[in-house]
Design goal:
77% of the residues lie in helices and 0% in strands. The chain has helices at residues 2-31, 33-55, 61-78, 80-92, 97-116, 127-154. The longest helix has 30 residues, at 2-31.
Length: 171
């Protein structure tokens, strides 16, 4: 019965952590000037592409593929890190704020490197590219940390099995 309760509480915590991370992601992308310019340019290019395809009588397949890819990327960034850290926290009985906040933040920030397969070689490093990558890493860390903190507030403080106090010896 305890396991079922923890599963329901974990699912509810994820249900709250994912929108919290999404809200922080939107806020960070709107506040950061580089990301804001990138989003504006990408949105205008996407609208132009969709309208030109529709006006030419073509089905909007490219737009559907773009939306599907964006949904998949958002799922990986917003859902997977708090779910993995939350499951590991339950399995190992971790109740620390640092475990959920920093763990989810680090896992979320590491996703671009994990997807790419490692760190870029130093020979192809452009200072502007490195600055943009550092900015993205910081944004992703804050997004993951906020989702992890929300998860901890809901379910992380009571993670693991209930610990019963040890019986006093010699009694």
């Amino acid at each position: 019965m305890h396991l079922l309760g923890r599963l329901i509480l974990g699912a509810f915590a994820l249900l709250l952590a994912v929108p919290a991370g999404a809200g922080i992601l939107v806020l960070a992308l709107l506040i950061d000037p580089t990301a804001n310019a990138w989003l504006t340019g990408g949105a205008l290019a996407g609208v132009d592409m969709a309208l030109s395809d529709l006006s030419a009588g073509l089905p909007p397949e490219a737009l559907v593929l773009l939306v599907a890819g964006l949904a998949q990327a958002l799922f990986v960034v917003l859902f997977v890190p708090p779910a993995v850290v939350g499951f590991a926290g339950e399995a190992f009985g971790r109740r620390s704020l640092l475990w959920y906040g920093a763990g989810t933040g680090l896992l979320t920030a590491a996703l671009p490197w994990l997807a790419r397969g490692g760190v870029r070689p130093a020979a192809s490093s452009d200072p502007g590219l490195l600055a943009a990558e550092a900015r993205l890493t910081l944004i992703l860390f804050v997004v993951g940390a906020s989702a992890g903190l929300v998860y901890w507030l809901v379910a992380g403080r009571g993670a693991g099995f209930s610990r019963r106090p040890a019986l006093a010896a010699g009694g």
